[in-house]
Amino acid sequence: MYTQALDTEGRQPAAAGAADALTERFQARIDAEERIEPKDWMPDAYRHTLVRQISQHAHSEIVGMLPEGNWITRAPTLKRKAVLIAKVQDEGGHGMYLYSAAETLGTARAEMVAQLLAGTAKYSSIFNYPTLTWADVGAIGWLVDGAAIMNQIPLCRCSYGPYARAMVRICKEESFHQRQGFEIMLTLARGTSAQRAMAQDALDRWWWPSIMMFGPGDADSKHTAQSMRWKIKRFSNDELRQKFIDITVPQAHFLGLTIPDPELHWDEASQHYRFGPIDWDEFNAVLKGNGPCNRERLAARRAAHEAGGWVRAAAAAHAEKARRRTS
Ligand code: BYC
């Protein structure tokens, strides 16, 4: 409904010549740090970029429920189980806020979901890796949510109002997720030698995929320059990746774990950690659908969508009844 109501807002075709003036005025508002709202005029490319990024983000939250959901029935204690259930539910909630934010741009949620299920929409590469042990739940919270926060805090200042506002609450919840993951890692790292080995193994497997989450290097990132001009992105992929590494390496030291990168070292001159080469072939293979779990993840989402068909039908029937009662 929201989508239909907004379908034509801000989209009136501009008369020849007037388009340039509108675009100039739009960029001036962005430069002045004004928020763009759903009914404001915006260039089609801005709208398209936002729908692309926000829907990919929403899909990532929804698919991201799967690797951790895999451990809900096997969490080691009742308390761990309760925390994990809450975290996975949070991710579902993030997906919902984000689909709603994307809908304000005139694309229906059903359309975005259909793209995900058809395999034509992207979601974060990170969720195509398996969760083999309980330590993976810790590593995801610590590294994956840690990387997510690094990327998402600047999105709270994104130029598009509904996305920026959705990100405020999401970031608060992601901070809790990161802390719970680090606490799991700390418990394991201070535990038996078998638990320490399990924590190290999880770090070994999740480190590089977490580094890849930030996307291609700046030289290969086709969207960054324009997205930064529009203040959708505030930092480039490489800038955020470096910030994440600088913050996370001392945390690994605190845990007494070793980052699986023989070239990693502190560079006094630049005051940054320098790191070894990223395996972009692996990243590109995952993006093309050939990661360890791509097929499994999509199959799980399709099965869940099919199984939920009766809920959608019941909700539609209920809405129709309510409409008839009031008309
Ligand atoms: N995986 O020009 P670029 C979470 C794509 S959820 C897959 O740099 P952009 C969590 C990119 O989309 C985490 N694809 O693009 C949930 C583009 O493809 P298209 C998700 C990737 O948009 C549950 C192409 O590569 N976070 O945290 O300027 C549990 C070229 O890239 C990836 C978000 O979505 C990737 N890693 O920058 C726990 C945050 N990287 O569209 C945690 C919002 C790049 O041209 N998104 N691609 O076909 C963003 O900030 C930006 O979209 C990105 C990419 C930094 C991801």
List the helices and strands and how they pair.
Elements: H1 2-6, H2 18-31, H3 44-63, H4 65-69, H5 78-103, H6 109-118, H7 134-152, H8 161-189, H9 193-212, H10 224-229, H11 237-255, E1 265-267, E2 272-274, H12 280-290, H13 294-307, H14 309-326
Antiparallel strand pairs: 1-2
Helix pairs in contact: 3-5, 5-8, 7-8, 7-9, 7-11
Bound molecules: benzoyl coenzyme A (BYC).
The site of benzoyl coenzyme A has 28 residues, from helix 3, helix 7 and helix 10.
Q: Please give the share of residues in helix.
A: 55-70%
Number of helices: 14
Mean pLDDT: 95
The computed structural class is: mainly alpha
Give, in order, the helices and strands.
Answer: HHHHHHHHHHHEEHHH
Coarse shape: globular
Name every ligand kind in the structure: benzoyl coenzyme A
Number of strands: 2
Strand content: under 5%
Radius of gyration: 21 Å
Describe the fold and architecture:
With 327 residues, this protein is mainly alpha-helical. Helix content is 66%, strand content 2%. It is built from 14 helices and two strands; from the N terminus they run H-H-H-H-H-H-H-H-H-H-H-E-E-H-H-H. It has helices spanning 2-6, 18-31, 44-63, 65-69, 78-103, 109-118, 134-152, 161-189, 193-212, 224-229, 237-255, 280-290, 294-307, 309-326, and strands at 265-267, 272-274. Strands 1-2 form a two-stranded antiparallel ribbon. The longest helix has 29 residues, at 161-189. It is globular. It binds benzoyl coenzyme A. Benzoyl coenzyme A (BYC) binds next to helix 3, helix 7 and helix 10.
Task: Give a quick set of tags describing it.
binds benzoyl coenzyme A, 14 helices, single chain, about 0% strand, mainly alpha, 2 strands, about 325 residues
